[in-house]
Amino acid sequence: MSREAIEQLIDKWMNEPAFRAELRADPVGAARRAGARLTDEELTALRNVDWSLSDDELQARYTKSSGGC
After folding, report:
1. Is the dihedral of CA 39, 45, 51, 53 positive or negative?
2. With left for phi above 0 and alpha for psi between -120 and 50, is residue 67 left, alpha or beta?
3. Region of residue 22 (phi > 0: left; psi between -120 and 50: alpha; otherwise: beta)
4. CB–CB of 38/28 below 8 Å?
5. Rounded to two decimals, what is the model's pTM?
6. Residue 42 CB partners (closer than 8 Å, separation 6+)
7. Which residues, in sequence order, are CB contacts of 19 under 8 Å at separation 6+?
8. Which of 13, 47, 51, 52 is the most buried (most CB within 10 A)?
9. pLDDT tens readout for residues 11-33
């Protein structure tokens, strides 16, 4: 999956509350339904996200890991 595609998923997560809820309930399925084609490594990373964190905590972790993108 390209960085651009990942950014699109993150943008959707940040701007669509219904998608955030769907992602928390079924991260892999939600990403696939959104049209994302994920590698095995990306699927593993998505499964390993601590979805019990608040939206603010998740956003802060993404910002920190992406270097502030």
Report:
1. negative
2. left
3. alpha
4. yes
5. 0.76
6. 1, 6
7. 12, 13, 30, 34
8. 13
9. 898 899 999 999 999 999 999 99
Report the amino acid identity of residue 10: I
Question: Would you list the DSSP string of the chain?
Answer: --HHHHHHHHHHHHH-HHHHHHHHH-HHHHHHHTT----HHHHHHHHTS-TTS-HHHHHHHHHHHTT--
Would you say 12 and 31 are in contact if contact means Cβ atoms under 8 Å apart? no
The count of other CB atoms within 10 Å of the CB of residue 48 is 9
Cα 57 off chain centre by = 13
Domain range list for the chain: 3-65
20's tokens: 């955030």
Joined tokens for residue 44: 């593993």
The structure tokens listed for 6 are 């990942």
